[in-house]
Amino acid sequence: MSRGETAGRCVVWVGRPSVEEHFGLIRAGWRTVVADPSRDAGDPPPCGQRAIAVLDLRQDTEPAARMLFELKAQHPDLPWIGLTGVRASADDVALKRLLSQAFHVIEGQAPLGALRQALRRATGCTTDVEADPPSLLTGNSPAIRTLSQNLRKFAPVELPLLITGETGTGKEMAARALHQLSPRRDKPFAAINCGALPASLVQSELFGHERGAFTGATARRIGHFESADGGTVFLDEIGDLPLDAQTNLLRVLQEGTVERIGSCQSIRVDVRVLAATHVDLEKAVAQGRFREDLFYRLNVLRLRMPPLRERTGDVELLAQHFLDAFRESYGTRARAFSSAARRAMNAFPWPGNVRELMNRVQRAAVIADDALITPDDLELNADTHGADRDSLGSARTSAEREAIMDCLRASAFNISECARRLRVSRVTVYRLCKKHQLAIDQLR
Ligand SMILES: Nc1ncnc2c1ncn2[C@@H]1O[C@H](COP(=O)(O)OP(=O)(O)OP(=O)(O)O)[C@@H](O)[C@H]1O
Ligand SMILES: [Mg+2]
Description:
This protein is of the alpha/beta class. The chain folds into three domains: about 5-125, Rossmann fold; about 135-305, Rossmann fold (3-Layer(aba) Sandwich), CATH 3.40.50; about 310-444, Orthogonal Bundle (Helicase, Ruva Protein, domain 3). Helix content is about 45%, strand content about 15%. It is built from 19 helices and 14 strands. It has helices at about 5, 20-25, 60-75, 95-100, 110-125, 140-155, 170-180, 200-205, 225, 245-255, 280-285, 290-300, 315-330, 340-345, 355-365, 390-410, 415-420, 425-435, 440-444; strands at about 10-15, 30-35, 50-55, 80-85, 105, 160-165, 190-195, 230-235, 255-260, 265-270, 270-275, 300-305, 335, 370-375. The strands form four sheets. It has a five-stranded parallel sheet, with helices on both faces. A five-stranded parallel sheet has the order 7-8-11-6-12. Strands 9-10 form a two-stranded antiparallel ribbon. Strand 4 (about 80-85), helix 4 (about 95-100) and strand 5 (about 105) form a beta-alpha-beta unit. Helix 16 crosses helix 17. Bound molecules: adenosine-5'-triphosphate and magnesium ion (MG). Magnesium ion binds near residues 171, 172 and 236. Adenosine-5'-triphosphate binds near residues 137, 278 and 358. InterPro entries: AAA+_ATPase, AAA_lid_NorR, CheY-like_superfamily, Homeodomain-like_sf, HTH_Fis, P-loop_NTPase, Sigma_54_int, Sigma_54_int_dom_ATP-bd_2.
């Protein structure tokens, strides 16, 4: 199948695909629209002539089936493929009747290979097309092109990788892209946010536990490292990993084994470890908060995600990308940005980076009255001109400080309100306050 054959071909996924499934289809050349019945109920997605639906019955069966009926009411000829996590039980007559109308039914938890095959058969295509890997990371700046090249170099190498960068720069996205580019792409990708896990649970989450290992351990639990065997484990906010878990992680990296809590049996695991941090790990090592030997083990390959303000030219590209993606699902009136909006976006320091840009664009797309999004729609100041870019380089830090300070004042120094206005997380606001030495308690 040439790329021309896939052009316009679209999979409407009724349900929630895993990231691997979503990327897997995109990589195979399928435009993929996700229609999540728990989120988009009563709102079947736009669906063209050359679409095929995937009815994902692995979560809530009824809402998904209802959404498929709505789709079929509008597009009676729409072919569809059923995905069931397990074999439909013999007495579930309604489900069996529904599935009997499918072009094909796939059973099991990891259906990507079978699904690609079924999609090809349903549409008469002969082979998949691998999408261009860098397209997984939108952007064309020198910084992002170098990053994409490094991603491709690092993907096939079985070494740990440390990804650094400010909040919202795409660290997790890069980790997922790397997994997709690697020979492990058809195996699990487990993303664990070490900062979000209570210290008492980290070990059990990562390495598992035996029944009775501690109070409340009523059953054996398999940890992420074991269940991701053959795949990739992404440890986000690795700087927050407690010291005892750091020791066990070192064992995984050195010996390729884990021990469940409450067991002294070593279990061999084959995982590639990717880690991300927004904190300076060298500093954490110097302060004794992070094991030096672990740091050197993780820091073999390093990827630095550039902040958006360093990605010259990418702001407009990303903004249009987010707007197009949003329009595809919601068909908004806004389709582009006014020149004033583009100037304002280029001059803004983007403390929340790509995530903040995406959030502002989506909100602007909803509220914009015209085809062109204005600075007001983006809640950006139209007077900020990007003319003196060089001086902005050093001025940006103080602009960032001012932006945070202004927003804090406008939010009466309420962190949640400030985070909402800036469209970043509360953690980011705290981080920025720390970075710019803004003592909230005193300012209040
Ligand atoms: N190059 C890109 N193209 C498209 N979307 C992107 C890109 N980079 C980041 N994003 C989007 O921006 C958001 C933030 O990305 P991600 O979660 O990977 O950042 P992060 O660095 O892990 O953030 P944090 O430090 O807060 O955990 C996500 O919704 C992601 O899809
Ligand atoms: Mg992240």
